[in-house]
Amino acid sequence: MRSKIIILLLILITVIDYKTKIIPDGLTLLGIMAVLHYQYYAGNVWRALLGIDMGIGIIWIMNCLKKRNEFGGGDAKLLSLIGAVIGWKVIFIFLIAFFLLLGFRKITKNYKTLPFAPFITFGTLLFLFLNGI
To answer: How many angstroms separate the most distant Cα atoms in the chain?
Structure first.
């Protein structure tokens, strides 16, 4: 049940990001708080906090390595939301999403700014599917 709610939230965020290129803070922060609340009572709060830190840290490191910031704060919060659910394995989701983005850019020869949330969502769905949701 929990993964179905997160998947629906991710799809909603993806549609909004694709149309507006903005990820609403209200959805991601509300999702993070709800997941933290759940993880606290499940006894996994440290795993969730580590996942949140990893989600923000990945985007921060990538922006430091590049001359221009391709990933925004909404992407960091979205990865933090996923990290709160999955934990430190959010690294694998980022790698899947990043390589999907690179492949999409190469195939379509579209080097303009693309919303990253659809790739994060697809990477998350792929990760959950491969791990048996």
So the answer is: 47
H helix or E strand, kind and range, residue 43: none
Give the integer Cα–Cα distance in Å for 69 and 84.
24
Q: Tell me, yes or no, if the pTM score tops 0.85.
A: yes
The pLDDT assigned to 41 comes to 92
Domain ranges of the chain: 2-130
Q: What pLDDT is stored for residue 111 in this prediction?
A: 64
Q: What is the DSSP string of 60-85?
A: HHHHHHSSS--S-HHHHHHHHHHHHH
pLDDT, tens digit, for every residue of 13-30? 999 988 888 899 899 999
